Amino acid sequence: MPETYNPQLGREHSYPYEHREEERDWHWGMIININRCINCNTCSFACKSTWTSGEGEEYMWWMNVETEPYGGYPMGWDMRLLDDLGENETIFEAAEDGEAAKGYIAQKEEWEYPALGDDQVHGEYPTGDVVESDLEEDEYHDMWQFYLPRLCNHCKNPACLAACPRKAIYKREEDGIVLLDQERCRGYRKCVKSCPYHKPMYNPETGVSEKPVGCFPRIEEGNVPRCVSSCIGKTRLHGNINRGPDAGHPGGNTSAAAGRSPVNYLAKSDEKIALPLYPQFGTRPQVFYMPPYHVPPEFLTQMFTPNTEDKQNEWPGSTFEESVKIVQDRVRNPSHHTLGILQLFGATTRLIETYTVKEHRVKGWDRKGNKVVDIPFEEEMEVREGEMWTNQ
Ligand code: SF4
Ligand code: F3S
Q: Fewer CB within 10 A of the end CB, N or C, for the chain?
């Protein structure tokens, strides 16, 4: 089987498709700051009302928000697949004969509870009042939960694409968006089975499958996807994940002093502040998450870092858990540069191609070189001297 280099794993592995992802100039990418998500599901309903409100699409939530650690749609999708993979094994390496990837088709009852586990925390309350100040340190609860927005990752090694015997799924040249041609589809459901994130879905009314479209009509017009523009928590930033530090100026406009895109910086700069979800599956997902900083790193380690020695060597920590802790600390105490980029989240519905952070001002430009954002920001905090609280 052909091999491909996977930079998220730091090694080569098999990928059963003759197409090789070239590092094209423009590729769809998204950053989600989990710390800002409040599970309001505005994104989910914006997506549903735009794309999946027809017959046979009732159960299709291309965009959904799960409560970790107990939620999941379909039910238990991640743990079930992880249990089937060997150590350091991608879904392609674990595939059985005749299959492109290891996977499974979720049954009807697994799709019945999109909000299962909502607001169910991990851990227990101690007896007594949890806000009492005379509790010993080890009596405090270790409760935590967080919200995980999930969507198609427009992967660079898409399992859905590799699995379709009809070649009905393709990756667009211009932006890497992975689309399903419903005219070609014959409902074989290999895509449904192979996507480890369970985003292609079969429509029983039409007899063919459907998958998320990355809001491509909006991208073509220079706007961000609806889940990004509708997010009231300003959790997201969308743009060109491939536009690195060496890229030129957009539209020849040299006023955009930096050539890099902000999503590229957060996901790929040395700061390493946004991480892919379950990279160990091997599909090279292009949605990157700023991890929640209140959650035990041992839980996040499995979710956001690949279990390979090669990758470990690239990280500043000596163990994966320490690496995640470092990322959590960076998210909690962002650098001045990252703080500037954080102002761009939800600041405009236009797609920000490039940006600059200079002193206390962040600016963003679209693909044509037009300035679309210009925001001042401060990070200093003044702490007043003297007593904060009195017993008056
Ligand atoms: Fe395909 Fe699934 Fe990757 Fe989306 S997340 S591109 S449906 S493999
Ligand atoms: Fe192919 Fe999936 Fe249709 S495998 S034929 S795109 S159901």
A: C
